[in-house]
Amino acid sequence: MSDGRIRDERFCQGRRRAVDYSKFYADGTGLVATDPTVQGSLVEITRCLKEGNLIPEKYYRNGIDRDTDHLLQNHGIKHLHLHPDTDVDCLLYLIEYQDSVLYLEVDEHGRHFNKPAGSVLSLLHQSEIANADAKAAANKAAKEAAAKRGLLPKRTADERKGDE
C-alpha cells in the first residue's frame, strides 16, 4: 500500500522513531491514569520506540505468527497489549511509519475489532492519520531527493540496522 504505514506484525527494529499523539488520543479504559502496570508498559513501549530498541514480546498479541490481524492489514493500525493479565483488556492502538509512530488511543478490543475491523478507529482519527501519512510521504521524498544529491548524513551502525 502507498500510505507509508508499516504493516509487518512486529515493529521494525534498530530504527529510532519520533512518537506523536493524535489530537483525538484518549484513554478509553481509564487505566493509564490508575494502573501502574499500564503506565509502566506505556512508558517502556515509548522508550523502546524512541531509542530504536526491541519491543518486548509480552506486548504482542497471542497468535501473532498464526493468524491474520485484519486491523493491521486493512488500516495499518497495530495494537499492543498493555497489561499481562489476560482479564485486563487494555490495548495501545498506533500506526508505525519509517521514521515515526502515531499513537491513536488506549482502549479495549471491543468496537475496534467489529466488522469491518478498524472502521470506527480509522474514522475517528481520519484527519490525524491523513496528516501523518502526508508527513511520512514528505519525509521519504526528502530523503530520496537528498540521497540522489549525495547529501544524506552518515548514520551510525545502529541506524543502518533498520535498513536490512
Describe it.
About 35% of the residues lie in helices and about 15% in strands. With about 160 residues, it is an alpha+beta fold. The protein has a single domain (about 20-160), classed as RelE-like (YaeB-like fold), CATH 3.30.2310.20. The chain is globular. The chain starts with 17 loop residues before the first strand and ends with a helix. The mean pLDDT is about 85.
Q: What's the topology here?
A:
Elements (H helix, E strand, L loop, with lengths): L17 E4 L9 H4 L1 H16 L18 H6 L2 E4 L9 E6 L3 E8 L11 H6 L1 H24 L7 H5 L3
Parallel strand pairs: 1-4
Antiparallel strand pairs: 2-3, 3-4
User: What structural category do the secondary elements indicate?
Assistant: alpha+beta
Strand order of the largest sheet: 1-4-3-2
User: How many DSSP H or I helices?
Assistant: 6
Could you give me the name of the CATH homologous superfamily?
Answer: RelE-like
Q: What is the general shape?
A: globular
Gyration radius from CA atoms, angstroms: 16 Å
What's the CATH architecture name? 2-Layer Sandwich
Mean pLDDT over all positions = 86
The number of domains? 1
Can you write the helix and strand succession as a string?
EHHHEEEHHH
Total beta strand runs: 4
Task: Output the CATH class name.
Answer: Alpha Beta
Describe the main β-sheet briefly: 4 strands, mixed
* Strand residues, percent: 5-15%
